[in-house]
Design goal:
- By secondary structure, this protein is of the alpha+beta class.
- A hairpin with a 6-residue loop joins strand 2 and strand 3.
- The relative contact order is 0.10.
């Protein structure tokens, strides 16, 4: 036996009172009712507090936010007695006995269904890391570019840790000085700007012999002032509440106060059982029927929440959530060691390969700002965003409280039925449904955020259905709207929509994340679907044709081919290409890099041979000119002057042209001159006797030449 109360239920009768098929509107539905004798065992040998109770199982759909249906209960005359009977009324000595005379009304409502995703902080990510270029050397602010790991004052400076004050590794950037190749190309012409990341002018002519330092560019990674807090997104947990309001005409019944003749009890997935204050009614949530559409799977995404400097957490949570972003985890670098990802760090920027031969900005693409700008353009064009939370509707954030972590709440508009069990002290019940006329005021198809209406691009998900309904009756009522009978190759919404509308008011359905239409082909065409409005009993109230156009799908343009290009078999350039195919003979840099030493030697020999040949030709021309001049002088002498020096006396004296005075000296025998050792006499021999030049001195009348 159990010490605590143990409930023994004896089924008396059971019957399915009301069960609706699809023909009925998708409102609250009674699945089954049954009467039973419920007793409580408290550990003694006898059973006590047995009562006749009525058990009702109902379904409550999404969108039941108004009390448009209610249950009317005829209560048992006496409650809180041992056998639930008192033919003559409650005895005066029994203070717990209550007489119930008036019917009790119960109404069920359901809040907005949401998918709650638990959030756990992972790390913060910068909005847009930027590359800043600083020039050094000739024309720069500093003569030398410094980027060493041990530099106290590198050109870019250091980022420091806020808490420790230590230098952040690799935050000093990197230097790209002029190389031999870039200097050669810029000096002699033909150099490419892509050879230097910062497009540095490496010409020796523009920078006089690099006397003021080797030109270089320092490349620094600067962080934006805006950061985003990144959160891991957990699995979806369905959240909602179901409220039961019950009341009657007498406040003395149900132990209610004079000011409030009613009581409300609620159940949620976290608290699925509730009991009224006087134990008249118990409410139990059994669960949900499977939905036609599953909630979004966000566990492989990171939620990015912008956190401006100086903003408090409450200010961040209360901000515009439509521009918060959900991004796939594959786009992130959580270590900072990968380029072109959200979270790219200093190490990735400083160490990425061939960094000085790549354009500025390399390694810093695909950042948060890039995705944000892309989504802004899509929204401006009426297209569904890829990352903004607005693609899921009005998203909310549940802040952490009572030990629970923060959660992202995404509204679910798909039809979902919850099963609840009502257990009450009653003999029978009536199920009352409000029925009210209504009509379809307007039905149209628009792009995202109602940027434009009437048409959308085929084969996309950008056809949002917007329907305006009106309750023209005097009662609050429930309605069901369906979109069916679409033209060929048009997919309607996956589920119908259930709404409650206040009397004499209108209600706009959509735009919702799932209530949209899609064309399966890529054609520009006029399309049509039929919108049907049902009342709470499943009667068709109104129909309307939904006309819309689709524009041709904007396919990615394929570049035009220049023609047939069969090409040659692929070869390994290191093994198959010859040096003649790899490099021009005069391209010294290429021959050195490719190891073509024979061609390099051949080029040197050609240059050296050309130089020697030019020198020899110049020498020959000078000698020929000298010989020609000597021949001209010899042809102008007298026969006596042309005689050999050995046959003529050598005269020594002075000649005066005006006085005709000649002093004769004794003749001295002339020794023959030794043969010349000049290059000319050794290689070019005259065929005749080369005359010697006269040995006497000639006075020209202006002075003596001795």
């Amino acid at each position: 036996m159990m010490k605590n109360g143990k409930m023994i239920a004896k089924a008396v009768t059971g019957a399915v009172i009301w069960s609706w098929t699809f023909g009925r509107a998708l409102g609250t539905t009674i699945l089954a009712t049954s009467q039973l004798l419920q007793c409580v065992q408290n550990g003694s040998s006898s059973l006590r507090s047995c009562q006749e109770r009525l058990v009702v199982t109902v379904t409550v759909p999404t969108g039941s936010n108004l009390a448009t249906e209610f249950i009317e209960v005829d209560p048992i005359r006496c409650v809180n007695t041992e056998d639930s009977s008192c033919p003559n009324g409650c005895p005066s000595e029994d203070e717990d006995c209550r007489e119930l005379v008036d019917p009790i009304h119960l109404s069920l409502t359901k809040s907005q269904v949401v998918a709650n995703y638990e959030l756990s902080y992972t790390q913060s990510f910068n909005h847009k890391p930027m590359e800043v270029v600083m020039y050094t050397g000739t024309g720069g602010s500093s003569p030398i570019c410094k980027d060493g790991a041990n530099e106290q004052h590198p050109t870019c400076g250091w980022y420091t840790d806020v808490q420790t004050g230590s230098q952040v590794p690799d935050s000093q950037g990197f230097c790209c000085p002029c190389t031999f190749e870039s200097t050669w190309g810029d000096t002699l012409g033909g150099g490419s700007p892509q050879l230097a990341r910062g497009n540095v002018d490496c010409s020796l002519l523009s920078n006089p012999l690099f006397l003021s330092g080797v030109p270089a560019s320092a490349h620094c990674m600067n962080l934006n002032t805006l950061w985003h807090a990144g959160y891991n997104v957990g699995r979806a947990e369905i959240g909602y509440s179901i409220d039961v309001l019950f009341f009657n005409k007498s406040s003395s019944q149900l132990n209610l106060t004079e000011e409030d003749h009613r009581e409300t009890i609620s159940v949620t997935p976290q608290a699925p059982f509730q009991l009224s204050s006087d134990a008249f009614l118990s409410l139990q949530l059994l669960g949900d029927l499977a939905s036609f559409v599953s909630p979004p799977v966000l566990s492989e995404k990171i939620l990015l929440i912008p956190t401006p400097q100086g903003a408090s957490p409450q200010e961040v949570f209360d901000g515009d959530k439509s521009r918060w972003m959900l991004v796939d985890k594959g786009r992130f670098s959580f270590t900072g060691a990968e380029c072109d990802r959200i979270g790219t760090g200093f190490t990735a920027f400083r160490t990425h390969p061939e960094k000085c031969q790549r354009p500025a900005g390399t390694c810093l693409t695909n950042q948060i700002s890039d995705l944000y700008d892309d989504d802004q353009q899509r929204v401006s064009a009426g297209q569904t965003p890829l990352y903004f939370l607005s693609q899921w509707g009005t998203v909310d954030l549940k802040p952490p409280s009572d030990g629970a972590q923060a959660a992202l709440s995404v509204p679910l508009t798909e039809l979902r039925h919850s099963i609840v069990v009502l257990n009450m002290v009653a003999d029978n019940l009536k199920f009352v449904i409000n029925r009210s006329p209504g009509k379809i005021v307007e039905a149209k198809v628009c792009t995202f955020n109602q940027h434009s209406c009437g048409s959308f691009e085929a084969s996309t998900l950008d056809g949002y259905i917007i329907i305006t309904l009106q309750n023209t009756g005097a009662l609050d009522a429930a309605y069901t709207v369906t979109v069916t009978h679409c033209t060929e190759r048009v997919l309607p919404p996956p589920t119908a929509q259930h709404v409650n509308i206040v009397s004499q008011s209108t209600f706009q359905l959509g735009p919702l994340s799932t209530f949209r239409v899609r064309a399966e082909d890529n054609e520009a065409s006029q399309r049509r679907c039929m919108v049907t409005m049902y009342d709470s009993t499943g009667v068709v109230l109104d129909t309307k044709d939904l006309f819309f156009n689709t524009t041709e799908t904007n396919m990615t343009e394929i570049p035009q081919s220049p023609g047939e290009r069969d090409g040659d078999p692929l070869r390994d350039p290191r093994s198959s290409l010859t040096c003649a195919e790899r490099c021009k003979l005069y391209n010294i840099i290429c021959n050195i890099l490719q190891g073509c030493w024979q061609r390099l030697l051949l080029f040197v020999l050609i240059v050296l041979g050309s130089f020697i040949g030019a020198c020899a030709a110049t020498y020959l021309l000078l000698k020929l000119a000298t010989r020609t001049l000597a021949g001209s002088i010899t042809s102008g002498l007298t026969p006596t002057e042309k005689q050999p020096a050995a046959g003529r006396p050598i005269l020594r004296g002075t000649y005066h042209a005006q006085e005709k005075h000649v002093q004769h000296l004794p003749s001295i025998p002339q020794e023959p001159l030794p043969p010349s050792r000049s290059f000319w006499n050794r290689h070019f021999h005259s065929t005749g006797t080369r005359p010697s030049a006269p040995t006497h001195n000639i006075h020209n009348g202006w002075g003596d030449l001795t």
